[in-house]
Amino acid sequence: MSGTPEDAFAAEEEAEAPRRPRLAWALTGSGHDFLPCLEIIRRIGEVDVFVSKAASEVIWMYTRDRRPFPAEVRVIRDTTASAAPVGRFYKGWYHTLVIAPASSNTVAKCVFGISDTLPTNVFAQAGKCRIPIIVYACDTKPVHITAAPDRIVTVYPRAVDLENTERLRSFERTTVVESVAELERAIAARLAELAGSAGQEG
Question: Which of 64, 87, 90, 174 is such that its CA lies 20 to 30 A from the CA of 148?
Fold first, then answer.
């Protein structure tokens, strides 16, 4: 593959649909609780992971692993200006979108309707397809203790960052969580809801 836009679109057209709707997960350029989020993805297994250009760098910084996911996890990278893979949301491939961890930049763009990265594009398209969204926003309180690649650091989110997180809570079908534990509970509740619906249909 030469890496041209034509190659990227051809690969997207040839992408195989999952056997059943699955979880979509977007990774951003945030390092806050990045490794615990990767571990949740590995445990779930059947996930399509949308990786922004910034997230590709963060994966390497935190893991030094070029293949950090098991084979059943499909990785979609930010290779086209139009974010061609977002078309999968209109094909019914996904039942839920998770954005975790979500950087302050991503949250701000989502709040103001800017879709110029893969995570912000999938957020917009999931919303337009009425697909439930779970966002682990990094900036939820005035002081954070978090792990950088080589040390523990203290972060002081700005007022605008905290305000944007609050605005995001008002979006329909969007659940904002503030910790890994809350993220796990929200995902488990969503999967249980889907399992219950499937059981009723059966």
Answer: 174
Whole-number Å distance between alpha carbons of 127 and 115: 12
Rounded CA-CA distance 107/135 in Å is: 9
Rounded Cα distance, 88 and 177, in Å: 25
127: pLDDT strictly greater than 70:
yes
Distance between CA atoms of 183 and 29, rounded to whole angstroms? 18
* Whole-angstrom distance, CA of residue 197 vs CA of residue 153: 43
Task: Using alpha carbons, select from 181, 180, 143, 188 the residue that is nearest to residue 161.
Answer: 143
96-107 pLDDT, tens digit each: 999 999 999 999
- CATH 2.60.120.10 corresponds to the domain 19-201: no
CA distances from 2 to 6, 11, 56, 118 (A): 9, 12, 20, 21
Domain ranges of the chain: 19-201
Is 116:80 a contact under the CB 8 Å cutoff? no
Output the pLDDT for position 1. 40
Q: How far apart are CA 132 and CA 43, in angstroms?
A: 21
Residue labelled with tokens 């979500």: 102
Tokens of 91: 């094909």
pTM of the predicted protein model: 0.90
